[in-house]
Amino acid sequence: MKRYRHLENVTTLTYDKAKCVGCGLCATVCPHRIFALQGGKAEVLDREACMECGACALNCPTAAITVTPGVGCAQYIIQTWLPGKRRTSCC
Amino acid sequence: MPTAAGRIPRVRTSPTAWDRLGTCRARLGLDRNQYIVNPGLFAVGLPDAGSPVVVTANYKLTFDTVRFALAGRDVWLLVVDTRGINVWCAGGKGTFNAAGVSEQVRKTGLERVVSHRQLILPQLGANGVRALDLRRTCGFEAVFGPVRAEDLPRYLDQGIDEAMREVTFTLRERATVIPVELVLGWKPILGALAVAAVLSLFGYGFSLGAVWSRWLVAAGGTIMGLFCGAVLFPLLLPWLPRAFSLGGAGLGLAGAQVLPLFFPHAPWPALAGAGMWTAVLSSWLGLNFTGSTPYTSPSGVEREMRRAIPVLAACTLLALVLFVAGGFAGGSA
After folding, report:
1. Contact status, residue B121 vs residue B90, Cβ threshold 8 Å
2. A79 close to B (CB below 8 A)
3. What are phi and psi for residue A50, nearest 5 degrees?
4. Quick one: which of A17, B87, B93, B295 has its CA closest to A26?
5. Tally of domains in chain A
6. Where does B2-167 sit in CATH, by number?
7. How far is B62 from chain A (nearest CA, A)?
8. Contact between B168 and A1 using a beta-carbon 8 Å cutoff
9. Residue in A4, A77, A91 nearest the CB of B298
10. CA nearest B33 in A: which residue?
11. How high is the ipTM of this complex?
12. What CATH number does the domain containing A70 carry?
């Protein structure tokens, strides 16, 4: 997936290394292989590949990772812009 | 088949003609929102108390992919009620979650069917299922299996490897989503053709033939835009610029160069307007394709939309003006 990249410097992913307990779940679940365990702590290897799916933050036991998850889909975002039509479907 | 928790249905592991027809219909977008199987526990092959339990969604396309991938295996398949949505989207929208998995475990009496306490979750469900919650709510430990169902046999034999953990977007995967883009795209396209028909009424020469020939140019531009944005765009995606709207516009502009060949007698402003519309439509379809890719983030898509939509709106207006102007220039051509 290295050849597929969208815009840079947009992701809401944050990582607080001090809170990490080294369970490695983030490295397991990330579909873009952003995290890896190094020396008993997770490291962010490739922040720009993040698509904000939210799997790492949801599965992190200590909330060391935060991200505003969502669906990266134009149709969906338009629907959230329209008044009174929050939480609609697309895929 | 009989078990300690009652009779469990066994599923086929090869597609019937009916399954194939259903897959085609779902891929075409005909009934993909109601393509559902009943949630519950199913047997693949002849599983026993020690056989692994694979968890999946109740979208039939997903269910079929998983059971066909497991042909020749003896596995339990726990189908969770995700309202007929695939694992990844259901995870993102909250319909595939730890509570839903626990509910199916309880309802099916899984703890009486198997002696172990492990569930194999699809990795892409991790955006909805918090694995740590599962042990607390149903006593089963969750491990994340591969991203793709086709890797399940290899995973069951050898365990996980890095290639099974990463999403891909191969030419084949990109081509698979073309039909649904085309079919779902038809309604706005029909709207555009109707608007073009109204605009074609304005112009020099109010004969049916003149209106028809003007409309053909607009329809040609629309079809070309659909082709560039919904067919060429997905196929050529890896070689296009990062911004989807730019790639779509570029392909649309390239496609628009063909229009004068189809309509050699059309006045240039009408061709320019139709060509501009081709680029706008292709760009918009490209932007919409973000919803079909496995790598765009909502933050990125929203930023691109905020930049692209005003430009696209202005270009649409300009295209309309040019096209109508072409109608009045038509008399001299």
Report:
1. no
2. no
3. -65, 135
4. A17
5. 1
6. 3.40.50.11600
7. 13
8. yes
9. A77
10. A91
11. 0.85
12. 3.30.70.20
Q: Are B322 and B273 in contact (CB under 8 A)?
A: yes
> Where are the domains positioned within chain B?
2-167, 172-332
Which amino acid, residue A79? Answer: Q
Residue A41 lies in a domain: yes
Identity at B36, one-letter amino acid code: I
* Inside any domain, residue A5: no
CA atoms of A56 and A15, how far apart (whole Å): 10
pLDDT tens-digit map of A26-72: 999 999 999 999 999 999 999 989 999 999 999 999 999 999 887 76
Contacts across the A-B interface (CB distance below 8 Å): 140
**Residue A88, domain member (yes or no):** no
Distance separating alpha carbons of residues B292 and B133, to the nearest angstrom? 30
pLDDT digits (tens, 9 = 90+) for B118-133: 999 999 999 999 998 9
Q: Is residue A1 part of a domain?
A: no
CA A41 to chain centre: 18
Can you tell me the mean pLDDT for B206-233? 88
In sequence order, the 6+-apart residues with CB closer than 8 A to the CB of B197 are: B215
